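Memo to structure team: turn this sequence into structure tokens by end of day. - J.P.
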Amino acid sequence: MKKIPHIFIYFYPLLLSVIGLSSCIESVDLPIRIEKPKLVVEGVLSDENSPCTIRLTNTSTFAYANQTFQSQAVNGALVQIIDSTDNKIYTLPQVYEEAGVYRTRELDFAGKVGHVYVLSIKTPEGEEYLSKAEKLQKVPQIDNLYVEYTETAKFEQSYGHLIYIDLKDPKNVENFYRWEVYFWTRRRSTGVFDFRSGQITKDFCWQYFRKVAFDVESDRDIDGNQIQKKSIWYAPIYNRGSHLIEVSQYAISREAYVYYQRLNDQYNRTGTIFDPIPSTIEGNVYDRKDPTKLTLGYFSVAGVIRKRLVVPLTDEVYLSKISTITLPFQGEGDCVSFFPNSIPFRPSDW
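Reply from structure team:
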């Protein structure tokens, strides 16, 4: 009679228990709550001579546990801007090359300071929405836009420029500001070897950066004062070449200020157990039949001023360090393919 190995005798009961336990496990299909899609409205009407663009999307529903969230464009809507001061209505036709995007026909369309505007939307399903009326405020000038070279360990690339502005806040006028900033900077990669010329090509490009967080401020504590050295952003130095910086300053409404401040608070949470649970932040567009039902996103009416600065890296202090400090940030292969949001040449409008 063949002897059964001792190890099998020891582990056989355990094996049976595991098999039995696994046979008792049943797949449970948990019910998943399916929320009705909500309209998301994004757009800014300013006093700048440029087309006004409105983007409409719907939040997605979740029918399955493995389904990911994605926005759905709203096409075929009737989108209009109502000038309540002049009693004029401007229709924004859809841009069919861009799903869910609506834009004024006039290339030099501009809102007027002191006028009150309302956004009107009628979806293909017949649902009608209106934005709360907002008055277009005059925006103060940006007196100075400048940078200061810095070396700090706070950022991935510790060598760069701190971006600042100066402005004068109007006295005895309630002002709320929002700033946007973007910059182009030159990047370098190992490039691609061109066998015909025997040279390395595609080793330089220009990369685009835009600040994600909403930078807003009230003049409650600075009314009528000079705002000096207002910190806007940090522009790291990745390679020899100029920085191309543009700052936009908006004069927004009190309601817009509160909305963007709430977005910032949620964006800047650290993710600790002491943070409040993230919540849906509703905007200023409501259902015409039920004004208590608000959409997501915001239609902002604001005066705007923009200022540009070209920062040439010609100082010997910079040049003596750049070849060393930028080496870890060089890409591989084709520069444009390696770095996102990049183009092969300096932007044509700079």
